[in-house]
Amino acid sequence: MDPIQTLVKDLAEKHGRSRESVLPILQGVVEQEKFLSERSMIEIAREIDIPAADVYGTATFYSFLETKPTGKFIIRVCKTITCAMKGKNQILFAIQDMLKISLGETTPDKQFTLLETNCLGWCHKAPAMLINDEIYTELTPEKVREILTGYMKVNVNH
Amino acid sequence: MATSNQLKRVDFIFRNENDWEKILSSTLKKKPQDLINELISSELKGRGGAGFPTGLKWKLTAESKEKEKYVICNADEGEPGTFKDREILSRVPYKVLTAMAICGYITGAKRGYIYLRGEYKFLLPELNKVIDEFDYYCKETDLDFKISIFMGSGAYICGEETALMESMEGKRGEPRNKPPFPTQSGFKGKPTVINNVETLVHTFTIFKYGAKKFYDLGVQYSRGTKLFSVSGDTPKPGIYELELGMSLQDFVYEFGDGDTKAVQVGGASGFLVPRKKFKDAAIGFKGKLTGISLPTGGSMMLFNSSRSMFNVLDNYLEFFREESCGQCTPCRVGCQQLLLGIKAVKRGEKPASYLDKLLRLTETMQYTAKCGLGQSVANSFSSIVENFREEMIY
Amino acid sequence: MSKKVNITINGFPVEITTGKTILEAAEEQGITIPTLCHHKDLCVAGNCRVCVVEVAGQNRLSAACATPCEEGMEILTNSLKVRNSRKQIIELLLAEHNADCTKCYRNGNCELQTLASEYKIMTQDFIELVPLKHFSIDAYSPSIIKDDSKCIRCQRCVRTCAGLQGVNALTVAHKGDKMKITTFFEKAMRDVVCTNCGQCVNHCPTGALVEKNYIEEVWEAIANPNKHVVVQTAPAVRVGLGEELGMKPGKSITGKMVAALKRLGFDSVLDTDFTADLTIIEEGTELLTRLKKALVDKDESVSLPMATSCSPGWIKYIEHMFPEHLKNLSTCKSPQQMFGALVKTYYANARNIKPEDIVSVSIMPCTAKKYEAFRPEMHDSGYRDVDYVLTTRELAILIKQAGLDFNKLEPAKYDRLMGESSGAAVIFGATGGVMEAALRTAYEIVTGREVPFENLNITPVRGSDGIREATIKIENPVEEWAFLDGVELKCAIAHGLINAKSVMESVRAGTADYHFVEFMACPGGCLGGGGQPIPTNPEIRQKRAEAIYAEDEGLPIRKSHENHEITKLYKDFLKEPLGEVSHHLLHTKYTKRERY
User: Fold this and answer.
1) Smallest Cβ distance to B80: which of A27, A81, A134?
2) Does B356 contact C at CB distance below 8 Å?
3) Binary contact (A51, C192; C-beta < 8 A)
4) Which domain holds residue C112?
């Protein structure tokens, strides 16, 4: 068994093999792999015995279930009203400038993917962003640079 | 002029009370029927935004003869401008769990789920710890009730109760046709109580202090307190528990920056109230006798005179265009038309009168969309376009 | 007695059976409420919102298809509010739809076009969305073309593919403005589990899903003086074609159809029924051989139940979904492909025409047949056995283009050599028909007597239930088949792939003790095929079935083995069933496929 097969099988053992397990399994794969490949969806379909097309249709409904390869760190900048009012664009510029990528792109070293997202629920501390599951609020361009530098260091050390 | 209360801060929800075990065990000694009556007499209405009477919801589910039933806590807080549920779950999660268990006792449900939005995944470790503790307590006291967390993955529409259940069933989060309602046929087709996080915490307050204490707060048709998520152009953004029924005037006096142009009540799916109407607008549920009453999930976004209402509406519409599930025509196509339409008017590609066509479109969306999302796009659209028409055109 | 509720519709009080929807109640009262996502074959979706009606006391409108009638409801189906809303919804759909109707294959038979015309949508104020999106056309499949720019996202195709067929090649993906109907990972239809059954085409209200047509290719072949164009017509075509030409469902028009084909310029008009009879001889013999091996020789390698192999949608389905059970399939080619293989060998020889000069065309109620003809192994004559497959709908187009007044045509007869048919072959077009035809012949081979049913009508295998079972006890067989004495031959019939799936699941689980199962991909069998006239629904299919059984009763020969041309074929060419020539030309192999 290859790693994807093992991963999906383990997740199915943990969450069960009914239709209700689909989302937890998809989330489990994304947690590990960062995105859902064709292969992983075929495995999920096989493992819980549902149509592969349904797995795809379900996965693409949810913004946090990526179906394209992404970097190790997915940056999701909130673009909803309060964050937009409080300088979301400056945050985006700072990130784009630092990582040299545009929205929707991944750095060539496959470390960072830059995305926008809808309301993160931190409007009182806007602007906000998620890096993977970590939340960062009351951002300024300086603060963002600091945060990203931190992530880059972690990388170098690994 | 509206008869409104002064702005009254209250502290029930976040009051740190380490007595949930006591409240739970004493409540479970009472008869379910008495508890339902208590809840009904409190006149608590759902705090997610729709305002359905909570007691009635529990009663309907309790009356069902089905063996298998569910309690779901809706923590898919996605409405722009709300963040209260996150705060509740990080500060007083045991109140939510206790309320769910009591609901299970009353309705006969043995399983409870918290549907937590993917954006709040960082809450998971702490929440799981609390649930483990709660589980242990249930085991010790032979209480047959189990709570688990179901994670969402980024879909605003899953806050709609039937979409949430579809999502829990492993499908696309597309709202169902109603009827049947969840109290008859909910999660896995079984009778289900689904309540907003805050609603559950209010039931905790009611079971602890009695319905009267709750009922005595607020105004007619809008009893009790409510958490407000305050953001935008305000010197003090944050979460505040306030008595229902205050006028928007009082609210702005307290939270405005002295230059408040308009307040968006209830998030992108709520209403925008311009300065000239602050006095007449009261925050509460429909049925209030005077003035405009604004039901709300608690999102209060303030805009000062530096803000373009066109940009605000543009931002909302982009949100809806992306977050519509896409299944029904009026919502899927309507949201795209509204967004493209206001842009076209702004650019001069469509005449100003096109705004009237779009207003009629929102009316159609309100009448015909399958769920609350498509139905309520009309709220912000018409209140912004009607009050700030000039800003849409020039 | 079922319970009733009292409601009013447009002010008139009516009594309605409890549980009926507003849409059904209105229909009973002769009021048509327009629908798009609703279809009688499918589960309720309630997503197009065209059917909204006003219920007194409610500010919001209700979807008539999804709202049950309740006591005291006062329903308005045509109030100003309803009309305005409905009209705006149609406008919205048009704004999202590539409404270049004159260039559309479904022009003239499109539900959205009809609605737009009824509601007189004369202007388009809304902003057209199609130019803003990057729609692509999937035309890679030999059977079906999918054009997303014409899709109105009613999801009828998705519900068809899942609910009716259990195939799930199509799904809804993404959300909001990006929501679309697509396949696994948005692959081309030819690269996924799609069986080409064409039920999605039959159920699509617009031109988003249509058959790939070969009309021009066929006209060209006819026009080419160096080509000898042979046409075969499948059993179900004769009971469907009339609907495309303005007749009511349930008319069998075999003679007129043959006359029309001759006037279109085909050099020889022959009948797929002929090879349907041939299939019965080959497949019946195969079944009896398998039974002998299993029951007498105790050969455990023999797979039972034996499954029919006439339906190419079913074949592709089992190749994808139950590849471990391909041995259960009869090795017989479908009648279309047997015909194709014989036309360029037996027929060419008898008529003294070079096979390379023959263009073999078939008229089928089916879109999967187009794919079947394209399968690489279907070359046993040394050439592509069948060159072009047209659906019933395409034939109607040929007839209209040729300007034939169909009603005035004098009925004609099929040409000789491969044009004779028994009633048994005709009923191939209905679910249960292959089974009935096989039993008529096999029982007689084994016992020397006719099947013990009045007028040869084996009614237990007929009907419309998705899965049907029948048992025939064999008594006093002739000496050769003595081992079958007392054996109860257990048969099953499944139509619609969702039913095929459930039978196959019991076969896989080992809980099915059938000897012989007839599988048809489409609901109702071929008469409900994906190439048949649109619309389709249970009532229409019922009418077509009645026409088929009437045609059978009216024919002088009712049993495949009594078809004279078949006897001649064996005598002159094949020699014996399952013989060497048969093996080479009439039997085939199957391919395991991926399940996505």
Assistant:
1) A81
2) no
3) no
4) 92-211
Q: Does C509 touch chain A (CB under 8 A)?
A: no
- How far the first Cα of chain B sits from its last, in Å, is 33
Range C472-498 average pLDDT: 95
- CA–CA min distance A32, chain C (Å): 20
Give the closest-approach CA distance of A45 to chain C in angstroms: 9
pTM recorded for the entire structure: 0.96
pLDDT tens for residues B282-328?
Answer: 888 764 444 566 777 899 999 999 999 999 999 999 999 999 999 99
Tell me how many domains chain C contains: 3
pLDDT digit string, tens, across residues A77-123: 999 999 999 999 999 999 999 999 999 999 999 999 999 999 999 99
Let me know: does C512 contact C518? Beta carbons within 8 Å. Answer: no
Mean pLDDT over all residues of chain C? 97
The C-alpha atoms of residue C524 and residue B181 are separated, in whole angstroms, by 36
What's the gap in Å between the CA of C314 and the closest CA on chain B?
28
User: Which residue in chain B is spatially nearest to A76 when comparing CA positions?
Assistant: B119
A73-157 is classed in which CATH architecture? Answer: 3-Layer(aba) Sandwich (3.40)
Give chain B positions within 8 Å (CB) of A124.
83, 229-231, 237-239
Do C359 and C257 lie in one domain? The reply is yes
Contact B119 A61 (CB under 8 A): no
Homologous superfamily of B20-215: NADH-ubiquinone oxidoreductase 51kDa subunit (3.40.50.11540)
Taking the domains of chain A in order of start, what are their residue ranges?
3-59, 73-157
Q: Is the Cβ–Cβ distance between A23 and A40 less than 8 Å? A: no
Instruction: Inspect the interface and report whether the beta carbons of C49 and B332 lie closer than 8 Å.
Output: no
Supply the pLDDT for residue B4: 46
- Radius of gyration over alpha carbons of chain C, in Å? 25
Give the model's pLDDT for residue C1. Answer: 56
What integer pLDDT is reported at residue B51 of this predicted model? 87
pLDDT over 90 at C109, yes or no: yes
C262 backbone dihedrals φ, ψ, rounded to 5°: -65, -40
What are the DSSP calls for C239-261, one per residue? GTHHHHTTPPTT---HHHHHHHH
pLDDT band at residue B5 under the 50/70/90 scheme = low
- The answer, yes or no, to whether residue B43 has pLDDT greater than 70, is yes
Q: Interior CA angle at C145 toward C143 and C148, to 5°?
A: 155
Query: Chain B interface, mutation test: which of A85, A115, A137, most B Cβ atoms within 10 Å?
Result: A85
Distance CA B382, CA B341 (A): 14
Residues of C classed as catalytic: 283, 286, 310, 330, 369, 372, 377, 526
Residues C245 and C351 in one domain: yes
C231-255 pLDDT tens trace: 999 999 999 999 999 999 999 999 9
